[in-house]
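Suppose you are handed a protein chain with no further information: no name, no annotation, nothing but its sequence. What can you learn? This example shows the usual starting point.
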Amino acid sequence: MFEYEFTFVLDGITLDDEDTVRALTDELDPVLFSVHGTVHMTVAGEGPDATAAALATAERARRLAPGLRLLRLDRDIVGVADIAERTGRSRQNVNQWVNGTRHGETPFPAPEGTAGRHPVWLWSEVNDWLRRYGIDDGENRPTRAEMADIDYLLRHGSRTARLHVDLGGVHNGEDIARQLKQHASTTPQFVEFLLRHPEVRDAQGKHILVVSRPDEAVTDLFQRLERYDRPVVLVTVRDRIHARVLAPGVGADADPVPLEPEATVGDWLGLIRLYPGHAFAVDSGDDALGAAPGDSSLQLTTA
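A reasonable first move is to predict its three-dimensional structure. Written in structure tokens, the prediction is:
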């Protein structure tokens, strides 16, 4: 578990609401402050990643203050003067970082934009850059992509896609299943990927995920796929989790690309890139086994 710092923009609360402020303070130990009449809350949260930590912290805050709305994360935009103040360096020193005349071996982060013709940056990205030189503030914060995910989930709610995970004896299968279930509740791209494909849901409304390893025999995988009378999501794990929608079986009118009986799932995935839009089949001796990969795929990080 890791600890992260977040600054949430709030609604449904004022700093004069003593009971709500006390409930949040006693439980979460936040810093509450107002910016032009809008209440912000800086608070630490723990989780396996920043997104999970933010959602868990948001849920705790909602339980403590039922009328509270967490609108989004504050981006904490900083200019040269802010960076100088936070690091205890001079503005000239900070400008040298920006221009690459000091610590130029690692480029300074790109500006987020400009304010009054002066560049401004995300403090989280500047702080990560400073960490290389041991002059960061010691706090972990979400990345730009994680902030976008967290904002999405705060707006739309933690939409969890229910899963039916077919592990098929895969090594570390339970760990993979845990990661998939976490992605299905905290990774908007994965949730949206599944929701775009209702055809992969079973009779109970669960999305069917068939997990395979690259060295599994493709005939074994195709035999597993024969259990399903509908498209499924094939999940393979290497350094990343790769998910792809495919339709099991070989249609009567199909002209599939043949696979050698000894081919592995990894071999097959390589051929998919060479033959997009084609079905594949392998002669098992009695019947042809196969599948037709769709165009929709997604890559996810592993824990």
